[in-house]
Amino acid sequence: xxxQKQCRYVDIDYTSPEGRxxxxxxxxxxLEYSVKNDKFRLLALExxxxxxxxxxxxxxxxxxxxxxxxxxxxxSSPVDLNAVIRRTxxxxxxxxxxxxRRNALERAMLHFANYEKNTTKIDEDxxxxxxYYNQAMETELLIEVxxxxxMLKVIGNEKFLKSLQSRLExxxxxxxxxxxxxx
Length: 183
Description:
- This protein is an alpha+beta fold.
- It contains five helices and nine strands; from the N terminus they run αβββββαβαββαβα.
- The longest helix has 25 residues, at 158-182.
- The chain is globular.
């Protein structure tokens, strides 16, 4: 928390998902909680050598952090984390159509509260919601969209639609395989 408030670098000893120990020199920027995965993530800034993009967004699972050492090095000026995150978004946002029955709009706004979004009223009970996301967010967003129900329809983007179709096909095949083994 001190490093985040003072824009100070930290040395993080981290265990990757593959089990490799790595070290990172980062500036902690924000903690996020994933309800779906029941885990905290650290959003941090990783310095880049390219002058055009001075920082890269790094996302670490907090439970995989082995130790953190506060360093003396600080940033000379604060960095807009939201601008860094926006640079990582896909060019085309996810486009959802929400039919506002049984408080679907309110539920969707709560359900997708941790994403940057823009919602527009189409008619009396229909809304269009654009959700901006990047590759690191895609799987969780896919699961959240699938769990929402029939009041929500994915109408774009093509990349997300293909991922959704692939995921649904895998689930269909899994169900088919399970039924075949029972018989």
